[in-house]
Structures are given as structure tokens and as C-alpha cells.
Amino acid sequence: MSVGHALLGILARGPAHGYDLKREHDARFPGAKPLAFGQVYATLARLERDGHVEVAKTAQGGGPERTVYALPHGGRKTLEGGLEQVEPAVPY
């Protein structure tokens, strides 16, 4: 499963920002290498560019600006399509 599909699966539960997505990914996949924040945001940028996620809102709090991402209809279709595909086995 790609990082993009994992993030789409997490976003299927509801909108979230990158920090929450990273934390949820690392909690759900404890045997996997933890995601770097740069990887999360680069993946989100690609998913947004391709229409698989959208910016729900941008919140400015006491710290840095936080962008909240949501899963539009196109992202749900991508997620469902990814779940139907069988990935070939690769060396661990």
C-alpha cells in the first residue's frame, strides 16, 4: 500500500491536518518506518494536485498555520480503486 493510499484511508474517517495524518499513520502501522513530516506534506501536495484531496480550511492558531485536508468524491474513488488492486509481493 502506498503512502498516498494510506493517507486517503485515514482521511476517509474525516478531515485532518498533516500532523494528525502522520500520527495516525504511525499508530496504525507500527511495524512500518515512521513517516517524515516532509513526506506527508509532499504526498498531500501531489494528492491535492491530482484532485484526490482538497483543502477544507486553513486554521491560524498560536503556532504555524494548519491546513486541514478532506477527501472529496474523487479521492474516495481513488481509495476504492486502490483497495481493489492486488499489489505484487516485494522483498521485505
Topology:
Elements: H1 3-11, E1 16-17, H2 18-28, H3 37-49, E2 54-59, E3 66-70, H4 73-84
Antiparallel strand pairs: 1-3, 2-3
Description:
With 92 residues, the chain is an alpha+beta fold. The protein contains 4 helices and 3 strands, in the order H-E-H-H-E-E-H. The protein is globular, with a radius of gyration of 13 Å. The model has no long low-confidence stretch (mean pLDDT 83).
- Gyration radius (Cα, Å) is 13 Å
Taking all residues together, what is the mean pLDDT?
Answer: 83
Q: Which residues sit in consecutive blocks of at least 5 with pLDDT less than 50? A: none
Give the strand content. Answer: 5-15%
Features:
92 residues, alpha+beta, three-stranded antiparallel β-sheet, 4 helices
In brief, what are we looking at here?
The protein has helices at residues 3-11, 18-28, 37-49, 73-84; strands at residues 16-17, 54-59, 66-70. By secondary structure, it is of the alpha+beta class. Helix 1 (3-11) crosses helix 2 and helix 2 packs across helix 3 (37-49).
